[in-house]
Every structure is written in C-alpha cells, then in structure tokens.
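Fold Annotation — chain and its backbone
Next Lines — sequence and tokenised fold

***
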Amino acid sequence: MPPRTPPPTRLFVAPWRWLAALVLGAWLTGCASLPSEVDRPVSSALADPTETRIGRAVQARALQAETHNDSGFALVNSAELAFTSRMALINAAQKTLDIQYYAIHADETTLRMFDALRAAAARGVRIRILLDDFNTAGKNAQVLKLAFERNIELRLFNPLPGGRGSLFFRILGALKDMDRLQRRMHNKIFVADNAVAITGGRNLGETYFGQGESTNFIDADVLAAGRIVRELSRSFDLYWNNPLAYPVQSLMTAAQLEAMKPPPAAAAAVAAPVNGETSAAAGANATGGAPAKPAKSAVRKVTALDGSVSVAEPLPDSTNLALLEWTWAPSTLLVDKASKIAADADDVQASQDTTVDGLLQLMAEAKSDLLIVSPYFVPGRRMMDQLAAIRQKGVRIRVLTNSLASNDAPAAHVGYARYRKELLGLGIELYEMRAEQEGTLSGFSSLGSTGSAGGSRASLHAKIVVLDDSLLVIGSMNLDLRSQLQNSEVALVIRSRKLSADTTRLIEPALARGAYKVELQDGQLVWRAPEGSELKDSRTEPDASLGLKLMLTLIGPLAPDEML
C-alpha cells in the first residue's frame, strides 16, 4: 500500500503541469455537479447504551472502579492493538456502529474489517459510516460498495463532483472550486453501541495498522467509555444529518462501482462485494473472481523506535477490551462544527472557536512542561507568537515532528522549515523523526507492541499534546493552519497524571533513539544523530533525497502557510 495521499494542496506539481491541470480542471468542472434533491433520512445514536452488553459492562466497570468520574480511557499504543480494538468493537456490538473517517483504504486489513462489519449487519446491528469524499477514487472507490449492503448506510461528506477513476483527475475536476476542495472532514471516530469508542490519529488501512509494504505510520489512539462516548456520538449525529453528507446512492449506483472494479491482476485487495457475498465464499470476492489475497502471514522482523528488534506476527482479529488497563478521569471533547466545512465557512470562522483554537488556549495555561507530537507542524505567525509567550513563562517545550525524509507530505515540511531557526531561538526543543532504512517502527516504544511490519520507511502520524504531566490531548488535529482553518477535527482532553505519564513514557524513547535533535550552532542548523545509532550528525536534511531538498529550496519562499 502506498503512503497516504496528502490533501490536495500538499501535492507538489511542476508549474507547467499545474497550468495544464487548471485548464483541464476548469473544463471538467463544467461537466459535473452534485445532485440538488437528496433524501437524507435523519437518524441518531442509540439512546440507552445499557440496553447492550457493552453498555452494561461499562456501567459495571465504573462502579467497580469506585470513581466519581464518568468516563474511562485506555491508551492504544501499538498498531496491533489499534486493529484488534476496532475488530473487538465490531464483534461485540449488538445495536449500533457509528464510524467516521477522513480516509478508508481498500486493502487486505480493511477487507477483514468489512467482513466483520457485514457479519455484524447480518445479526441486526445498524451500521452508519461517514467518510470524507477526497480519498474515494481509484481502487478506494470499492469501499463505497458497503453502502449497498443490508443494515449498512454510507454517506460521503463534502463530495466532489465528477468521476472517481483516479484521484489525480478528481483533483483536476475540482480545481475551479478550490474552497470546497480544501475543506475536508478530518474527524476519526469509531463508536460501538454508544458505549465504547476509539479516536485518535489513524485512518483505516494497512499502513495505519503496521502492515504496509513500503511505508507504515506511527500513530496513537485512545479507547473511551462512558459519558464522553455519548458526546462523540452527538458529534457524529451532527455531521451525519448535515446537508453536506450525501448518501452514496445519491451520487452513484452499484453498477457504476462494479464497472470501476480494478482488474484481477491489478487489484491487491478491494472492499466488500454487493448483496452480501463474503470474500471467503469459494475464494472469490470483489476482485472479479480471483481468490482474495489472504492477510499477510509471513513472520517478519520489526525494528522499534529504540532500535530493538522483535518478531511481528500477522494481525489477529480480536482482543479482550476488558483486559486493558482503564483509567477513569475527568475529560472534555473538542470538536469542530460541521459548518467549518461549509461554503460560507470563512464567515463562520469569525464566530466560533475551532478544535485547534481550544488546544492553543489549553497550551497557554502550561506552567512547566509542554510535549507536542504533530506530524505536520506549520505554526504560522499567530501560533509562533503564542509559543513565544509560553516560553517567556519558563515553560519547557518539546516538539516531535517528521523529518523531510519521513514526511509523507513533504510540502508540509516547507511550512515547518521556515520557522525552524526561530523556534530554536525561542528555546523550543525540536526532534525530527528519522525514516528507517531497514525494518520499520513498531510504535512509540518497543514495550508490548507488535506494530509496523514489512516496510522500509516509517512516517509519524500521531497527534498528541501532554501538558504539565497532567493533561493529555489526543485526536485528529495537527498543529498547522490546515487543521486550524480548513479541516474539521476532533480531540479528547483527559486530565490524568497517570495517562499523561504513560504517554510521555511512550514518546520519550522516540525523542532519544528514534529522532534527530535539531540544534543551532553558529547560526546554522545541525541534526544530532539519535542515541545509540550508527548515524552521524548532519548539517543538511538527513536521509532526504536531492529532489526533496531542491523542492524545499524552490517552494520554501513562495508557498503560503495555509496551503501546506
């Protein structure tokens, strides 16, 4: 599976290709439009979670914990646990599953997940899937076949007009309406029976679950139970019933999706077939009769962030969530309103705070320590001023972000690089994730993590802030202007010294052994090699190709922060 396709404005295309794209895009846009009359039946989350086994188990666990806090949390610190937690929620659900994502890729790991979703639907579980429309082209369009399954509804948020044959031509067709193209639903929520949920940085796909062949993302989620889950569900309902959410059936037919199916020789894996056929039936599935490629089964070596090597088995399908260590703590939800994505969103911005605004307000309250993990870190002028004010109070600030070599959206590195010397001048400690040349990364530490397997490159994708060792924020947001101004985001704010300490312990090995520390020496940048590695210090972007360095030089002075 190739790395995640970045948002459209993070693509770097030669100027002549942009000119051709603009001409062709203007023509294509004139040929396509969205339907004006759309039937969107209103629905809402399960009213009483205690009608279900999961809900009653959560209630019993809260009583057993003898706590006054009404929400429980468990860190998801490995790719394996991220997959098995979601599978466990699917298998345990009795009434409802509500799933909201920026991207769902059609590959082997999601094929297994779709099999479980169809089994849940067959036993009467109502499934609602809300998916941003940007990544639903090419092979990934086959995910939309789930919309035609019994008991499964699938809606696309802020859809783009035009065909879905390839992502490139979808972007071309939408260039005339750049505002719509830019504003994406980036939320990531997975809720079972309105009782237990999982949220964080991951989309759904093999690169997010440590099974990618070339690239794997280092990410983090949190499982939540109790009252905070009902808040997540209310957020889901607001997006689901919004006029920007289009049922798949209003945009295309099952026959059209079938006609787009990749040929057997080209399709590694695709989404569920229509009319309830299972991928296991006679070994034939939506690849057009070819046997489904089994989930990766080879045992492989995995290199963790601290340099240790472990053996990675294929991902299992389930885990016992009751065996996880749950922490009951005060919490709140930061979530953008769906109106942030609307056509008049610029007017709305002036009247409401965003998720990133709320996060920045929390960060301003730091008294001693601020640990930031953001794969795309493009602070902009206003955020730089806020960081400077925090440093003036004597607060230690550490930032872990991607290096140019590890960044799956290298254009975003341009926006970060222009602030790098100023950040260091403020006394902010900068760490840049190194891209592994052999093996992959299993997570933020090797402890208890099977993690990434089979790839040769790792890319940071987690979004975490730890404040004063007592407040943990984990969600879908990056600390960049795209998350602040254009995308919708969601995050959990958890006040817990234990969860904060646990998270810090996961991240600090990455700072010491999995990242270059960037310093200023005589006014010039120096990248200090990670502890215990055989790497050497560098005075230029480490491990990055000449082409990436040239891109940084050419577009660095030109591209505005909000476009990166």
